[in-house]
Amino acid sequence: MTLVNTIKTKMGESLLLTLIYTIGHFMIAVACVHFITGAPLELATIDAIVEPLLNAIWLYTLHKLYFRKKLKKK
Question: What are the φ and ψ backbone dihedral angles of 7, each rounded to 5 degrees?
Fold first, then answer.
């Protein structure tokens, strides 16, 4: 079983989507902070880690609430 399949099986599709989103967000955030503000890569990386982690928690929560509400309507 691949890592992606293990995550999907054990943790659900919402968490897999959240992890993929977060990794992409890290890379984009580092580049944006570095090039827009001129911040050193170390500071840009810290910002890129903290902010998307909070967004990932928010996204995961939204997914869970949405699907819970969706299932109740059925």
Answer: -60, -45
